[in-house]
Amino acid sequence: MTHTFAQQQREAETELPTENFEAHEEPGQFPARRKGFTERLDVLWEERRLLFRVSTIGFMVAILIAFLIPKRYTTTTRLMPPDTQSASSMMMLAGIAQRAGNGLGAVAGDLLGMKSSGALFVGVLESETVQNRLIQQFDLKKVYGKRYQQDARKKLGENTSIQEERKSGIITIGVTDKSPARAAELANAYVEELNSTVSQLSTSSAHRERVFLEERLRAVKQDLDDADMQLAQFSSKNNTLDIQQQGKAMLEAAGTLAGQMIAAESELEGLRQIYSENNARIRALNARVGELRKELHKLSGQDGDAEHSATTAADPSGGMPYPSLRKLPLLGARYADYYRRAKIQETIYELLTEQYELAKVEEAKETPSIKVLDPAEVPEKRSYPPRSWIIATGTLAASALCAIWILGSKGWQETDVRDPRKVLAEKVFATLKSGLPGRA
User: Fold this and answer.
1) Is the pTM of this model over 0.90?
2) Is 63 within 8 Å of 391 (Cβ atoms)?
3) For the chain, what are the domain ranges?
4) What span, in angstroms and rounded, lies between the C-alpha atoms of 318 and 258?
5) Which residues are CB-contacts of 173 (< 8 A; sequence separation ≥ 6)?
6) 108-137 residue pLDDT tens
7) Is 384 in a helix, a strand, or coil?
8) In this predicted model, which residue has the larger pLDDT, 29 or 213?
9) Contact call for residues 75 and 68 (beta carbons, < 8 A)
10) 3-state secondary structure at position 215
11) Taking the domain 73-204+369-374, which CATH number applies?
12) How big is the CA angle at 112 (ends 109 and 116), to the nearest 5 degrees?
């Protein structure tokens, strides 16, 4: 292998069987005698030490390369095929692709002829929107050593395999990474992002209804709180809880007081026929009648005397824990207005809440459900590199190259120096050799 072409030429000239050539060949002809398989084996056997050394070196180099290549782990998760969707659901899926501009718009044109949402799921998983979220979540730019987002997306796409089986419709997501734990987390994160993206970009009628009811509920809740606050402030200011019940109670109390006062006055008139005004019983009955009349005036809201007028001016309720009968009609009208407004808002809120819950159930029915058949697990064995294959291939390649070199060198030595092919090869080699730097 270390012989130069000049040395090989001199050896060929000395070993050339000129007698046999001159006896059997015509001048100007150079036969290309082919060697048989046994002769080639014989040549390789003679150079078996060289072949063994080169094969050993190839084996060691292949082992070094196989163990220097970083290990990678691959894990997969499988999703069940989506349920057959109704027309509204298919419109929803089309809206997803149209509304999401980062990579999802490319799949919008195929939605009309799509039988299921499996193809759309694959498009969503391969979209830039999902990839950007995963890159941010796992800080993949630092993991992959990439400066730009698009380079990180490209690397993530190379490490991810997303396929849909035509017959079964099962979607398989495969993720390869240097860390087995991160590979499993990435695969499961793909499923989470798919579910989140489909839910966020849903445009079904049930979704629109749910969004509308959600906004309406917030507004009605605010109106209900305002109405309740106004009713509470009015009731607190005027000492009213329930006008109807309070009016009924006050009428009963007024009737009782009026009856007691009439009875006391009748008894007083009877005693006056017998006793004088200085009698103790008459004075006591006079005081009782005055007290009952005062209470009745306070209850009815009449200003019977200066003391009652001063009390009313200082306290609109006249010192009573409830409004007077004279104020009940006005207070009742205002109270009924506040109560009616609060009751209306409460009824609307209850109806909207019921419709909102129904809309959420309907939206859940129309949204394509993502069912995980096989969740991603942390792989126990590496998927790359195939060390046995690298070692075997490297060893065989070194042996084959060495054998080719041995047979080629032997064939070159046995080729006639006057062979035009050999002459041309020597000229080319000499020209290249003279053109190398440092050569004269």
Assistant:
1) no
2) yes
3) 5-13+35-69+385-434, 73-204+369-374, 224-344
4) 19
5) 76, 77, 78, 79, 125, 160, 161, 162, 187, 190, 191, 376
6) 444 434 445 678 888 889 999 999 999 999
7) strand
8) 213
9) no
10) helix
11) 3.30.1890
12) 110
